[in-house]
Design a protein that fits this description.
By secondary structure, the protein is α/β, with parallel strands linked by helices. It has eleven helices and twelve strands. The chain is elongated, with a radius of gyration of 23 Å. The N and C termini lie far apart (50 Å).
Length: 289
């Protein structure tokens, strides 16, 4: 359900996305470069940080250029997860000028997007750094990019919520509403899930008030989610949980509220904004002329 296991980004895991991105950009049919730049002209370039942040996706950028031309020389100077300052040179690229020019935008799209997620995550983590709480992502990711975006969250110091619908049982409000219509309580739902789910799968129940929290505790849920509760209500809800049940705060979390939410005593704070509302980090490719 929640993972500290490091995610690894390999060429195989991103080849399809890179191929789609290069096809979308018609990178192999770049009219401007094809007409104006001689095929064997060599060039050098650097990837340059233009804002403060956290780097994520440098190996993806490398794979973009290598997909266009396996002979390109891409020298990484800074690793993912590292802090960036304006003016930092992230990587050096040497090879055919056509490759550098046609791969530039696709490589930067990946690098800026993922670094933006890592940077925003690091800000949330820093806001609660002295408190015993995890900042985790959600499934609110760009379709097809979940592995990359959750990897970027890790690079920013965050943790991963479930990767997909098969990764854990989360009984949400809509499930509860439908189950109640059939006369099934939260306790019966948890018992059914426990009985029929694969062994070792965690069961989480979303709650909106203290009565539902009590139901979830009585049912033996592994994790109880506090959905859009006020910090004061979450503080009261935490006192209803035994030590072996985790608590998750969800909804209304931003950089202005995350600290007071963490102080309520919750174990986990899930933040959809990490992946759906992060701002791309300013990184550029500069030709060395």
């Amino acid at each position: 359900m929640y993972s500290e296991k490091p995610l690894k980004i390999t060429a195989q895991s991103v080849n399809t996305l890179i191929d789609l991105a290069l096809t979308e950009d018609a990178a192999r049919d770049d009219i401007t470069t094809g007409i104006l730049i001689p095929p064997n002209l060599k060039a050098s370039a650097v990837l340059l940080a233009k804002a403060e942040g956290i780097l994520a996706g440098i190996d993806v950028a490398k794979t973009v250029f290598r997909t266009i031309d396996p002979a390109i020389n891409f020298k990484k100077l800074i690793d993912d997860g590292s802090e960036l300052q304006p003016g930092d040179i992230i990587a050096e690229i040497n090879g055919k000028a056509r490759t550098i020019l046609t791969g530039e935008r696709t490589a930067l799209n990946f690098l800026q997007r993922l670094s933006g997620i890592a940077t925003l995550t690091s800000q949330f983590v820093a806001a609660v750094g002295d408190l015993p709480v995890w900042i985790v992502d959600t499934r609110k990711t760009t379709p097809g990019y979940r592995l990359l975006e959750k990897y970027a969250v890790q690079m920013g110091g965050g943790k991963n919520h479930r990767m997909n619908l098969a990764d854990g049982i989360l009984i949400k409000d809509n499930h509860v509403a439908l189950l109640r219509k059939q006369g099934m309580t939260i306790e019966k739902a948890v018992n059914k899930a426990r009985k029929e789910a694969p062994q070792g799968i965690a069961i989480e129940v979303e709650t909106t008030n203290l009565e539902e929290v009590r139901e979830a505790v009585k049912a033996g849920a592994d994790i109880v989610m506090f959905d859009n509760m006020s910090p004061s209500m979450m503080k009261r809800a935490c006192k209803l949980l035994p030590e072996d049940i985790w608590s998750e705060a969800s909804g209304g979390v931003n950089l202005q509220t995350v600290r007071v939410i963490a102080e309520s005593g919750v174990t986990i704070i899930s933040v959809g904004a990490l992946t759906h509302s992060s701002k791309a980090l300013d990184i550029s490719l500069e030709l060395q002329v």
